[in-house]
Amino acid sequence: MAMTPMAQFSVKPLISAPILTIAGHPIYFTNQALWMCVLVSAASLFLIAGGAKRSLVPGRLQSMAELSYEFVGNMIQSAAGKDGLRFFPFVFAIFFFVLFSNYFGLIPGVFTVTSQIAVTFALASLVILVVIITGFMEHGFRFLKLFVPEAPFILLILMVPIEVISFFTRPISLSVRLFANMLAGHTMLQVFAGFVIALAGAGGILSALSIAPMLLIIAIMALEFLVAGLQAYVFAILTCIYLNEALHLHDHH
Amino acid sequence: MDIAAAKMIGAGLACFALAGAGVGIGLVFGNYLQGALRNPGAAASQTTNMFLGFALCEATGLFGLVIALIILFGM
User: Fold this and answer.
1) Which residue in B1, B19, B4, B27 sits closest to B64, CA to CA?
2) Looking at the predicted structure, is the pLDDT value of residue A117 above 50?
3) Could you please report the per-residue DSSP string of A125-138?
4) Taking a C-beta distance cutoff of 8 angstroms, is the pair A242, A127 a contact?
């Protein structure tokens, strides 16, 4: 393992020859691509195996799959209303992709897919594109009323640009939130792992002290387990909230 | 001043964002506890909202970290 804390995030091609070339840009099969394939197949396997038996009294695997379906379903219904359930497959896929990549990343030695801004920004811009397309399909040009809150005209001069900017910074904040959380957590783990190695190598009483950062790593790991689940949840619920705005504009309540 | 040194100082200054995140997370959990102790019956229904607030709040501090990384490695 590399000693610098940032080395764990480097994307390396696994096969030195590019698989294909698009407009002069070589496309490589990288460690990132490998882990994306692994986690997507793991998620698919879990859901297919969980949904295969369909027994009336579910076993462990089946109830886990059912619980995750119910969890996402309830989340969409509470955040985006009944007609938000049309987007169940979309939200569910995003939630499971982020959840699995966050938890896979916590296994030592595994590359964290969501620690790459390219991945999270692609996901976030997909969400915003879906929101914009849904808004225009549902409301036509009335969708632009999203940027015009009910306020006196003089305030509107100020508020409309703010609303427009806040709408278009959403993909940035959505992607940077997930990416920064994963990056910060894994960097912190690696930095404390470096402390353990440095202290253990120092000899004498300092070697005995190396147990302290070791215990701290365990505590941080617990925090990272919380953060990994939480960030997947936040990503999914913000998707639901944005979809809710596109579906109902401001007149939901 | 040496440009590399200025970069280091800038990256360090960018980490001040974490002060705001610390205050924010404290407010989220503190106010949740305050509300939960006043009305324990409603506490369980608001835990997801609390964690949502925690995650949103924590992220603002991490934006500062991203800026520090951009200063160090990006430019």
Assistant:
1) B19
2) yes
3) HHHHHHHHHHHHHH
4) yes
Q: Supply the pLDDT for residue A201.
A: 82
pLDDT of residue A3: 58
Distances (CA, A) of A137 to A82, A253, B43: 18, 21, 39
To probe the interface with A, which of B57, B62, B72 has the most A CB atoms within 10 Å? B62
Residue A127 has pLDDT above 90, yes or no: yes
Highest mean pLDDT among A122-126, A140-144, A207-211, B59-63: A122-126
pLDDT digits (tens, 9 = 90+) for B6-47: 888 988 898 888 889 999 999 999 999 999 999 988 888 888
Residues in chain B with CB shorter than 8 Å from the CB of A231 are 55
Model confidence at A59: pLDDT above 60: yes
pLDDT at residue A5 tops 90? no
Which residues of A have a CB under 8 Å from any CB of B? 6, 173, 176-177, 179-181, 183-184, 227, 230-231, 233-234, 237
B36 contacts chain A (CB < 8 A)? no
Find the closest chain A residue to B59 by CA distance.
Answer: A177
Q: Which residue in B48, B62, B69 is closest to A181 by CB distance? A: B62
ipTM of the complex: 0.76
Contacts of A222 (CB under 8 A, 6+ apart): none
Strand partners, A26: A21
